[in-house]
Structure formats: structure tokens, C-alpha cells
Write a sequence for this structure.
């Protein structure tokens, strides 16, 4: 069987060519340019851009702030998303999937239009731009993304495990902490990773809701783009690449949720 | 047990209300002719919508958005489908390598992708090619999702058909166009629509790679701070309603299909 197909599948592989060419030009080449620009100045090798960023107090402060704001926002989102996903998946709601869809609907509408709406709401209730406004904006924007993987994991937990621990005399609280929670860790990590990168690199939300004292990483990068400081921008991009790579490593290490259930999207 | 359900029901309802309040607010105030948002200054009228349809910059932005999304989603669907067909019979290692390449733009921070694309277009001297730049960038955004949608569908398809067509003397392109594509059509339409939606929504990459071409998101961004928000509210209301209606239709159709499939 395999041998028979060999001749035809040789042609078949050619169908991948446009994809590979496209990705080489649009992904591999641009990413290598980041490294080129980060390590060169007017054509010669240098560490100056790295030195400039890593010794610049304000830049480092923004980098640090972006990281902890993203962690804090992700934790808050998790604390809100978990009960929602748990309620939908575990308490026998009749229209669980429809309600889940209601949560994801706003995600299909434009971030900027939603932000205008939120901005209008804030001005109606008199909330000024700043930390609180930024947090609310982040939570409301990324909540649906967190709910999805949690729902997938929770609804896939075999109810027999829960029944078994109940039969063995566990209180409802212990069933949750000893059975449900450990089994949902892959969903927690997947959700965390899915929201973390976009929050670290956000520049629109922080620009519109944070005000000047809550500038984040994405804005810094955007500034270097506007002022055509390609070297500095490349260094910041590489730092962000490293952060992303680390989160992906964590995701791969602890969870196979992405591979098992392609239905996440 | 019932109390538990009540607790989660209230929590979920509260979350939904909070999530939808701003959207409802903007739709309601799209019909207010007063510039400020407050309950006391609400004046019912269609001035915002009239202004919207006479503002040529907004109309151009709407055209640009739809044009770029159509071309980019089409390109992504074509490239992604071809790649999926080509990948299917490769060794597992080659497949996972290609898939990793495919997922890179999806996993990478969008702002890094944006910045690296600027460097690339600058290096290739393409900075002034407005539409081409945006179409290429949007194709890149839509492509990974297209592959994620098409590849599993292709795996579930009867694979021998392609080979059968080849054995009967079809060229690979014929086998693809006449045998594989017709069977894949529902998945391809789905992939195109998702790619289209993502392109319409895309802001960060567009904002970085924009040389004088407004799309709806970049225009909204440019006008965000201004007092002319009345027009933007009207635009938002229309976009929200259009997307909700589209999604409701798609979902109704899908659940009907599911029901008839499970019945039959």
C-alpha cells in the first residue's frame, strides 16, 4: 500500500510549496530581521541596543509592570472564569453550550468598538482612567478566552471520579479540592497562557484605559516603531519572544489540552 | 444541589450582564443626538446614522476593511488548503514541523509580529505598497486558523479518493479540484468566514503596517479620543448588530444540521 502511493504522494507534497514560501517570507525572514537589527548598528555588530534597554530605568519599570499586571489580571480572570466554567460544565445547566456561546459572542466583535463602549460606560459612572479602569478593561476583554479551555477540561472530567470520591466519603469541599481541581489544572494553565501573552503585549487597552502612569510594554514597543528606533524595538521584541517561548514551554510541559481537543476554537 | 445551581446561575447571569452592559449602552446611545453619554441628556434621533452614511472617510474605511478581508481570507484559504492536502501524507516529523511553523504567528505576541513585518517590508522596499502590505499581513493572520480548521476535516475524509483519482489518470491539480475540494467545501467556507472575521477585526498589525489606508479599526483608533464619538457609536451599533445577526444565523443553521443529522 505504502509503496504504491509513493509516486503520487511525491507530487502531492508540492502543494505545500506556496505555504512554505509564504511563511518563510512572512514569519522566518521577519523574525530573523529582529535579531539582525537587535545586534547591529549601521551594519556592524553591537550589544549597544541591549545595553540601552537593560540600563534604562523607565523601560525596565514598564517591562516589570507589564509582567505583574498581566499576572494579576490573569489571576483575577481565572477567579471569575473558573466558577462560570464550573457552573456550566458541572451543575447540569440545560443550555450550557448556548450560555458559553453568549460569553464568546463579544469576542467576535471588534476590540476597539467594545473599548469605546466600555469607555462610554466608565464616563457614565464617572470612573477615571487609571489602574482600576485598566484592570476592568483587561478582565472584561480576556474573560471569554479563559472560560473556553476551562469549560473543555471540566466537561471532559469523567463523572465516575467524582462519584467514586463521594462514595468514599469525601465532603463536597474535598471532592472539589482533591478531585476536580487537580484534574482541571491543564485547563487552568492553558487559559493562563492564552491570556498572558496578549495582556503583556497589549498596547491599545493600556493606552486607552491606563493613562500615562500605567503605560505597558506594547506601548513602549509601539513608541520605538513610531520613532523608527528599529534596534531598540527589536530588542524589546526579542524580550517578548523569550517571554512567549517560556509560556509555551510551560504549556507543553504541563498540559496536553491543546493537542487532545482541537475543538478549543 | 439546587442551591448550588442557583448560586452558579446567579454568578453566571451577573457576569453576562456586566459583559453586555457596555454593548447595550452603545447601541442605545447610538440613537441619542446629544454628544455626551448620560441618562439625563438622552435625545432620541438618527443624526449619528445620517452622519455615518455621509462621512466618506468612514465609508472608504468600510470598503477597505471588506476588500482586504475578502482577498486575505481567500488567499489564506487557498494556501492553507493546498498545504493541508500536501502535508497529509508526510512523515509525522515533517508534519509537526510545518504545524509548528503554522502556529508561530498565532502563538507569538501580535505586536512582535507587527514589528517584525515592518522590518521585513522596510527591507524589501515595500513600505509604500498600502493594499499589498495589508493583504499580505492579513493573510498571515488568517492562515493559521484556516489550517487548524481544514486539516482535521481532511484527516477525517476518505483519503483513498485522492489516490484513486490519480490512479485513474488525473493530474494532482485535477484530483484536488474535482475530488477533494468539493467534499471539503463546508470546511472551506467555514475557514474563509473565520479568516474574514479575524481580518475585519485585526487592529495591531494593521496599525503598524498602515500607510494611509484606513480600515474600520484604525479609523476608530484615530478618532477614539475625539468628541465625534456619536458617529462611532452609530458605527459600533451597526457592526455589533451585523455580527450578532450573522452568528445567530450560522448557529441556527448548524444546530438544525446537527439535529437533522442525529435524527437521521
Amino acid at each position: 500500500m505504502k509503496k504504491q502511493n509513493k509516486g503520487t504522494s511525491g507530487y502531492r507534497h508540492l502543494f505545500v510549496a506556496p505555504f512554505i514560501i509564504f511563511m518563510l517570507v512572512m514569519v522566518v525572514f521577519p523574525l530573523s530581521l529582529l535579531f539582525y537589527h537587535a545586534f547591529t548598528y549601521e551594519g556592524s555588530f553591537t550589544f549597544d541596543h541591549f545595553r540601552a534597554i537593560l540600563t534604562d530605568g523607565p523601560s525596565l519599570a514598564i517591562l516589570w509592570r507589564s509582567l505583574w499586571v498581566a499576572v494579576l489580571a490573569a489571576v483575577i480572570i481565572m477567579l471569575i472564569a473558573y466558577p462560570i466554567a464550573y457552573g456550566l460544565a458541572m451543575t447540569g445547566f440545560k443550555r450550557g453550550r448556548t450560555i458559553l456561546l453568549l460569553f464568546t459572542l463579544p469576542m467576535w466583535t471588534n476590540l476597539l468598538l467594545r473599548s469605546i463602549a466600555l469607555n462610554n460606560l466608565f464616563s457614565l459612572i464617572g470612573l477615571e482612567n487609571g489602574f482600576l479602569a485598566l484592570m476592568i478593561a483587561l478582565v472584561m476583554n480576556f474573560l471569554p478566552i479563559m472560560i473556553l479551555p476551562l469549560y473543555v477540561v471540566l466537561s471532559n472530567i469523567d463523572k465516575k471520579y467524582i462519584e467514586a470520591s463521594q462514595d468514599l466519603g469525601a465532603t463536597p469541599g474535598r471532592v472539589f479540592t482533591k478531585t476536580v481541581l487537580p484534574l482541571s489544572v491543564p485547563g487552568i494553565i492553558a487559559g493562563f497562557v492564552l491570556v498572558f501573552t496578549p495582556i503583556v503585549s497589549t498596547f491599545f487597552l493600556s493606552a486607552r484605559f491606563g493613562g500615562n502612569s500605567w503605560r505597558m510594554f506594547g506601548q513602549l514597543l509601539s513608541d520605538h516603531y513610531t520613532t523608527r528606533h528599529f534596534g531598540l524595538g527589536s530588542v524589546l521584541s526579542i524580550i517578548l519572544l523569550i517571554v512567549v517561548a517560556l509560556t509555551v514551554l510551560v504549556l507543553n510541559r504541563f498540559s496536553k489540552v491543546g493537542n487532545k481537543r482541537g475543538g478549543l476554537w | 444541589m439546587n442551591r448550588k445551581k442557583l448560586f452558579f446561575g446567579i454568578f453566571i447571569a451577573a457576569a453576562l450582564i456586566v459583559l453586555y452592559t457596555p454593548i447595550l449602552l452603545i447601541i442605545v446611545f447610538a440613537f441619542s443626538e446629544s454628544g455626551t453619554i448620560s441618562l439625563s441628556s438622552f435625545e432620541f434621533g438618527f443624526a449619528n446614522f445620517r452622519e455615518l452614511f455621509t462621512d466618506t472617510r468612514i465609508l472608504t474605511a468600510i470598503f477597505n476593511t471588506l476588500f482586504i478581508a475578502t482577498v486575505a481570507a481567500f488567499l489564506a484559504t487557498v494556501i492553507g488548503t493546498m498545504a493541508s492536502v500536501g502535508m497529509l501524507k508526510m512523515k509525522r516529523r515533517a508534519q509537526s514541523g510545518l504545524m509548528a511553523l503554522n502556529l508561530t504567528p498565532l502563538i507569538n505576541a501580535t505586536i512582535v509580529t507587527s514589528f517584525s513585518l515592518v522590518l521585513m517590508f522596510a527591507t524589501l522596499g515595500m513600505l509604500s505598497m498600502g493594499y499589498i502590505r495589508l493583504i499580505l499581513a492579513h493573510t498571515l493572520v488568517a492562515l493559521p486558523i484556516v489550517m487548524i480548521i481544514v486539516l482535521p476535516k481532511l484527516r477525517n475524509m476518505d483519503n483513498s479518493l485522492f489516490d484513486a483519482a490519480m490512479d485513474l489518470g488525473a493530474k494532482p491539480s485535477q484530483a484536488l479540484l474535482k475530488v477533494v475540494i468539493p467534499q471539503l467545501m463546508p470546511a472551506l467556507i467555514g475557514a474563509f468566514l473565520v479568516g474574514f472575521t479575524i481580518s475585519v477585526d485585526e487592529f495591531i498589525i494593521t496599525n503598524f503596517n498602515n500607510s494611509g489606508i484606513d480600515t474600520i479599526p484604525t479609523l476608530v483608533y484615530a478618532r477614539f479620543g475625539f468628541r465625534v464619538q456619536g458617529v462611532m457609536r452609530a458605527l459600533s451599533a451597526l457592526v455589533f448588530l451585523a455580527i450578532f445577526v450573522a452568528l445567530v444565523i450560522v448557529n441556527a443553521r448548524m444546530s438544525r444540521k446537527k439535529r437533522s443529522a442525529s435524527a437521521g
In short: The mean pLDDT of chain B is 85.
